[in-house]
């Protein structure tokens, strides 16, 4: 056999590219390559820049509740097409498609669970279901959850991510803003703590109602929180918004939210806040002139 043999090489050469997902992703924030497994193990946060991607409803509940303690409520409430609404497709078809793509049958999951040592009422909006839009069932489930928290004297936590009111239900969806707000007013009168957690994005009628009515309002980093989006505002006023406007950090600076908490710390911090608020509620007044013997988790001061 000569030096320049024409024998076929021993190395197997792949002539066609295999289809399928390799697992590598490009972070939309820092443009670094990250692996899907690494992202999942890091609570869906970029390990390079800590950008917070959305969590599924199931993962969010797991991240905030003690294992196997979540008990769903009011799942029997299902949306209906009262207005016979049709845009590019009929509303029932949109609902069927959303239910097929999502693990939920509506844009919110509510129930009770344990957060550390405290039993709480928990509501989590699902952005994968029609953009987390608030229709009649979303408003009714949240209202019933608030009333359940009032009856059982449970602290309430609602995690919001939404595009706002559901246009396919028109005025019926807008009515949910008043209904949820009215229920929260009764909860406030009873001095039962309500903590609102804002995630990316929280917009429209959700921001304009229950999401902004918490005794304490916390947000994840770099979350878009607004009523109308930046593009709509810029087109309306004919001016550019300041850098970072409508993001968590901007809103914290201007007093709309109370604190920003990273996802890895969210469960422990919420447990501290519930402990603090419940303790003060039992003493009579969380903000009395006498103060409290407990440390404020937001300031680390009494």
UniProtKB/TrEMBL annotation:
One GO CC term on file: acetyl-CoA carboxylase complex
Cofactor(s) the protein requires to work: Zn(2+)
Signal sequence region: none
Pathway assigned in UniProt: Lipid metabolism; malonyl-CoA biosynthesis; malonyl-CoA from acetyl-CoA: step 1/1
Region (Disordered): 282-302
Binding, Zn(2+): 27, 30, 46, 49
Stretches assigned to the CoA carboxyltransferase N-terminal domain: 23-292
First-tier enzyme category under EC: transferase
Polar residues compositional bias, start-end: 287-302
Pfam families: Carboxyl_trans, Zn_ribbon_ACC
GO biological process: fatty acid biosynthetic process; malonyl-CoA biosynthetic process
Entry's EC annotation: 2.1.3.15
Gene3D superfamilies cross-referenced by the UniProt entry: 2-enoyl-CoA Hydratase, Chain A, domain 1
Free-text remark on how the cofactor is bound: Binds 1 zinc ion per subunit.
MF GO annotations: acetyl-CoA carboxylase activity; ATP binding; carboxyl- or carbamoyltransferase activity; zinc ion binding
Main function: Component of the acetyl coenzyme A carboxylase (ACC) complex. Biotin carboxylase (BC) catalyzes the carboxylation of biotin on its carrier protein (BCCP) and then the CO(2) group is transferred by the transcarboxylase to acetyl-CoA to form malonyl-CoA.
Subunit details: Acetyl-CoA carboxylase is a heterohexamer composed of biotin carboxyl carrier protein (AccB), biotin carboxylase (AccC) and two subunits each of ACCase subunit alpha (AccA) and ACCase subunit beta (AccD).
Membership in a protein family: Belongs to the AccD/PCCB family.
NCBIfam families according to UniProt: accD
Name of the protein described by the UniProt record: Acetyl-coenzyme A carboxylase carboxyl transferase subunit beta
